[in-house]
């Protein structure tokens, strides 16, 4: 199977937060691993801003839990823990210069890359836009794909790669991220993926826009 991006041997999926890797790219990751592509996943922020008022889930516990959730969901997609990197930038307040430096360094460290996939430039979350901007300024010959996370179910313009995935499969991968689905109950201002958002995130096909 080809995706219109040649035959990538090594791909990098860049997620602004833990869970964006499956929300935005689960079908892409699965398709790539099934054809033998080595897939590296880079999670940019620590995910600690989702429940700042929780007493039972202080920052250290929450960050550790969110990392475990990402590793578990990705393992189901065939990604080894050694192929997941957490850059630990501050969730919700991504500094653009720090993001640029961290991602450019990670791309250089990875070496050969044939495909880089990350959030769309017009994504509704500022952290996602910062990551997209950092990837745009990263000089690398790899082909690029982007996906929209916020708001969910947004139609993307331009050439689109549409990858089918069973709704139940994608829903189960997102549900691995229990901290974002109501498991933390002592922070009334905390973030929880609403039912309609989960329905939109689990939609099929998964859509990615082409660049270059």
Radius of gyration, in Å, reads 16 Å
List unreliable stretches of 5+ residues. none
Secondary-structure-based class equals: alpha/beta
Oligomer: single chain
Shape: globular
Mean pLDDT: 94
Strand line-up in the sheet with most strands:
3-2-1-4-5-7-6
Largest sheet: 7 strands, mixed
Question: Total number of helical segments?
Answer: 6
Strand runs, count: 7
Give the DSSP E fraction (strand runs of 2 or more residues).
15-25%
The proportion of residues forming helix, as a percent range, comes to 25-40%
Spatial separation of the terminal alpha carbons = 21 Å
From N to C, what is the helix and strand string? Answer: EHEHEHEHEEHHE
Task: Describe the SSE topology.
Elements (H helix, E strand, L loop, with lengths): L9 E6 L4 H15 L3 E8 L13 H18 L7 E6 L6 H15 L4 E5 L6 H11 L6 E5 L12 E4 L3 H9 L19 H7 L4 E6 L1
Helix pairs in contact: 3-4
In short:
The protein is an alpha/beta fold. Helices cover 35% and strands 19% of the residues.
